[in-house]
Amino acid sequence: MTISPPSADVPGTDAALHGPVLAWFDTHARDLPWRRPEAGPWGVMVSEFMLQQTPVARVLPVYEQWLARWPRPAALAAEPPGEAVRAWGRLGYPRRALRLHAAATAITELHGGEVPNDHAELLALPGVGEYTAAAVASFAYGQRHAVLDTNVRRVFARAVSGAQYPPNATTAAERKLARELLPADEPVAARWAAATMELGALVCTARTPGCARCPIAARCAWRAAGSPAHDGPPRRGQTYAGTDRQARGKLLAVLREALEPVPQRALDAVWDEPVQRARALDGLVADGLVEPLPEGRYRLPLT
């Protein structure tokens, strides 16, 4: 599937989308802690790391505990990285905790403990990619950047390109389209980034879009085309039960709950299949999430 750029012939582009979406956001935006002024740039950065592939409801309690314990990057940087993994809890994809710890360390050492407001400097931080740099610059500092997460990509695919779903991986055409749709005014562009993300999360959802509640339904190219079914590569489903990812999670949970190094037998007890268990444990060690010790013991990393 190809994402087409906006044109005068496509219903719902540029300014025709901005007003309705921004007005809807003013009324329907959720009151989330990282959107409040007191969150600051660090709170925004923490939320962006946590929200990757994880729903808001699961993030909220961990986010609150995290900011209470580490209200500044320097506070997190002063702790061993294993403490970040421990505090990450059951959010999943725990390498994000290590990356956030590494970013906090770099912020402390290179930027005086303040999250940089320059996009290039954000992008240079460990664990910060194109999306996170744009999101922090936009949501924390009100800058004009195209912020493309799954929700935004789905809104643009439907409203502008007439496709039910975006491609599995972000394309150059999507990035170009997102840049072309950005309002010219910087603060308005930052609100637009948040508004389109919220619209995708609450209304233009993947499985059951609430078109009757959508502020741009009348301008949506996908609806105008008759809501055609997805004709691209099959959508990737996520499985968990019985996978190496589940095995890793079980092993890591034992280590998170232990204050002392854990013997091999404690890990053996939570996953029966020995080959998969060994592979999962090796992967955790290779990823820096687990530190092996003499006498077959393991712990969360200290360095």
Structure in words:
With 303 residues, the protein is mainly α. The protein has helices spanning 15-28, 40-51, 56-69, 73-77, 81-88, 95-110, 119-123, 130-141, 150-159, 172-181, 186-202, 221-224, 244-257, 264-268, 274-286; strands at residues 262-263, 291-293, 297-299. Helix 1 packs across helix 11 (186-202), helix 5 crosses helix 13 (244-257) and helix 13 (244-257) packs across helix 15. The longest helix has 17 residues, at 186-202.
Q: Brief description of this entry?
A:
The protein is mainly α and about 300 residues long.
Layout of helices and strands:
Layout: H1 15-28, H2 40-51, H3 56-69, H4 73-77, H5 81-88, H6 95-110, H7 119-123, H8 130-141, H9 150-159, H10 172-181, H11 186-202, H12 221-224, H13 244-257, E1 262-263, H14 264-268, H15 274-286, E2 291-293, E3 297-299
Antiparallel strand pairs: 1-3, 2-3
Helix pairs in contact: 1-11, 2-3, 2-8, 5-6, 5-13, 9-11, 13-15
